[in-house]
Specification:
single chain, mainly alpha, about 80% helix, globular
Amino acid sequence: MTYLNAFVVGGLICVAGQILIDLTQLTPARILVTFVVSGVVLSALGLWQPVVDFAGAGALVPIVGFGHTLAQGMKEAIAKEGLTGIFTGGFTACAGGVAASLVFGFIAAVFAKPNSQN
């Protein structure tokens, strides 16, 4: 059942993004920022954690989950370090995911065969 919950929630997040692309004039970058900020806001209000508990990776893997991870990292860092946690918490919480995306992106670039842009 956990896999089904993850699939449904992750799929609904993707459907929301596709609807925004199809029905609005928002650029993909603005939609991305909207999802990250909504993840931060929903996490700060305590509304996203129940979704994470229900859907697991279906709520953490999409970009809304990145905003949630940023907010949780800041919250934990503020509790430990005080005011400086505002500046360090998000980076610490997301460092592993960002590093992995850079490494895997580099590996993909090494093995990809680029097409000429002319």
